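Model it.
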Amino acid sequence: MKAISAIILVLLKSFCFSQEYFNKVIPSSQYYVEGSSSQVLELNDSTIAIIINAEYRDKPGQLNKLCLLNSEGNLISLNSYLDSINYVNVFDVIRNRDNYFLAGLKYNSVTKLNDFWISKTNRVLDTIWTKHFRGIYNRCKISKIYYGNDNKLILAGTDNNVRVTGTFINGRSFIFSLDSVGNFEFYTRIQGQDTVNQEGYFDVLQVKNGSIYACGTSAKFNLDQEPLIVKLSPDGKLVWRKQIVEPKYNEVLNNIYYQDDGTLLCVGGSFNGLNNGVQFTYILLESLDTLGNLLWTKRIVKGYKTYLYNTIQDSKSDIICTGSFQASPTYIQDGWIAKITSNGDSLWSRVINHDDSTSEGFSHISQASDGGYYLTGYSWVPGDNSSKAWIVKTDSFGCVVPGCEKVVRVEDIKNGKEKAFVMFPNPVVSKKFFFLSRIGSGETYQLKIFNLQGEVIQTYNFRPHVGTQDEVDLNASVASGLYIVNIINEIGKVIASEKMEVVN
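Modeled.
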């Protein structure tokens, strides 16, 4: 009998996690304020890595940490990475064969300024070479790195002029190219007609004929932001610069893609500004030809505060977006992932939650080898008033609860044909479970776990929104056995109840 039980347990674990799902906040000392601004790296079949930016809470300064996790999201190691005195913020990572290229900014402890920074590493992130250099101004960073033609690196970002108080004077966008060993090919600093604007590029690419395209934003001192796209020749000469003026909107372009039909597709965010009363946001798509002519503009997925920070394009040309989502002023900001077509049709949108005590969100997305997605950003650890790095692994539908893509009618929830909340997995085999909310009212709900004697052994507070996916980590005191999980609204009514088996 024991042998049969062991076989069932092995099969159960294999079945439940044939495609991995996890929703992890990386714990650390309360004296660090942390988050991750770069992608997940799959080092091998069983190990992934993220680079964490950590700021000291009780003194000036920052450092980087290299976090290794197994394929189930369990922590393997967390150690300081790179120079802890002249710290580095990593904003983008790309892989080319057996090497990684990392890019961002490097703090210079002597000058107290930021330098441009780029590094080449091997597959296990050991440094092969690094380059850092000053911009024209005092606060510069590389936002994006692209592996271009002839083994050259194309990089784009911002060179800002900042007062001692931290306020901006102005800023300029730039694109530069390095050869395979880090030597300069060209450096192009681009300035619009208004010399006091703050401008920057967030993405760059190179096409087969050598032309280089980048997108970003031009921000004015009245907080207006306008989309910005440029084209450079292969040797870095400016061909054209396109600044799109739309008085009703503030807009940013985060990513640019070259399409099969020879056009450019830019994706970003559109919103109504801080001083215009009612808040709203859209996903922004703009299509241009290679001469810089605007072909069409679409604003889709209207919301209260849905901020897009990064996207990727899949093999079908669909765009997967990530960022943060806030349903209304009464809700807390959560993580968010969505999928749209390159023609501007919305396919699906998911809200992912880890902690309801304060805001959280994603800053980057990358494709997993199993077809799912990795999302990185920041969230919180209960009782520790500082943000921590957050990493989520979803399936190809953006789910951490399998089947979250299923469309369910409200009538079927009301008449009991469909569940208002869906748990996964059950039995619980790894001290955690996820649940999907199919209703949302803005109230504060409680998930309570009872033992068979009717004692409450764990409580999880949350605020449901339709499509939100939460993770509950079981307390150490929750031993193997049978339990009852109740979801209770603010007036004490049990909205849902389900038996749960825990197998440790």
